[in-house]
Amino acid sequence: MPARFPRTPPTVVPAAPRWHIPSRIPPLTCILQAPPRLAFTPCSTLSTAMAPAPSHTPIVISGPSGAGKSTILKRLFDEYPDRFGFSVSHTTRSPRAGEQHGREYHFVTKDDFQDLVDKKGFVEHAQFGGNCYGTSIKAIDDITAKGRICILDIEMEVANHPTFPRPRFLFLSPPSKEELEKRLRGRATDKEEAILKRLKQAEAEMDFSTSPEAPHDKIVVNDDLDKAYAEVKEFIVGKDA
Ligand SMILES: Nc1ncnc2c1ncn2[C@@H]1O[C@H](COP(=O)(O)OP(=O)(O)OP(=O)(O)O)[C@@H](O)[C@H]1O
């Protein structure tokens, strides 16, 4: 799994969760016009019609915490060890012991960070715990220049960037809220409060995933792991890989 960018929690608009599986996702023409609005219609969807041909275009993978992103990506990276890369984020926080500039993060001053923000050099950036974090266009381009596919676990604001070419968006969905809760508890990495918070946020993410503003080219339901992996793999590296 890539170094994870601290994600800004989406705004949760209270709504009764509807975990259904629509037959297709909204057309891509909606994507670049509207800002990502996180109002909510939970569901799990599958679509192949809108996905462009696999290439070196960066992939943004999203989905509720516990949906299985790390599990599936690990499998993919094990199968294709030289095919992917992760962008190195910028941060204004100080390096921790053992961290190297340019490896874990690009450690920059607040002024330098702001300068890059002003120049629209980030595809997304956010504040977290009093520090700024961002994914720069250059960091993504560095991966693509090496002939690798850059995998990003970032917010959807990248879809609205004025100059960055549109990445491909993959959403990994759990089969149900109950199953998601089971996985989060089974993973045993979070306290009760964190699990409840993740579940609430999951509802917002699920709703957003099928709203007209959602940019996803493909939504994979991670019920059976092998099947979900095969679908993710086909979307990312193509059918014949
Ligand atoms: N298809 C599946 N069936 C059953 N369990 C699964 C499946 N996929 C993943 N899991 C399990 O669900 C748990 C959550 O998976 P994982 O940690 O990969 O989720 P994640 O989406 O990466 O979460 P986070 O965003 O919090 O990192 C793990 O314990 C994993 O082994």
UniProtKB/TrEMBL annotation:
Q: Which SMART domains match?
A: GuKc
Asked if the keyword Nucleotide-binding belongs to this entry, the reply reads: yes
Q: EC number(s) of the enzyme?
A: 2.7.4.8
Q: Name one Pfam family in it.
A: Guanylate_kin
Cellular component GO terms, alphabetical: cytosol
EC top class, as a word: transferase
Where would I find the Guanylate kinase-like domain in this sequence?
A: 56-237
Give the record's keywords alphabetically: ATP-binding, Kinase, Nucleotide-binding, Transferase
Per its record, what are the GO molecular function terms? ATP binding; GMP kinase activity
Q: Which domain of life is it from?
A: Eukaryota
Does the UniProt entry include the keyword ATP-binding? yes
Please report which protein family the annotation says this sequence is part of: Belongs to the guanylate kinase family.
Q: What is this protein called?
A: Guanylate kinase
Taxonomic lineage is: Eukaryota, Fungi, Dikarya, Ascomycota, Pezizomycotina
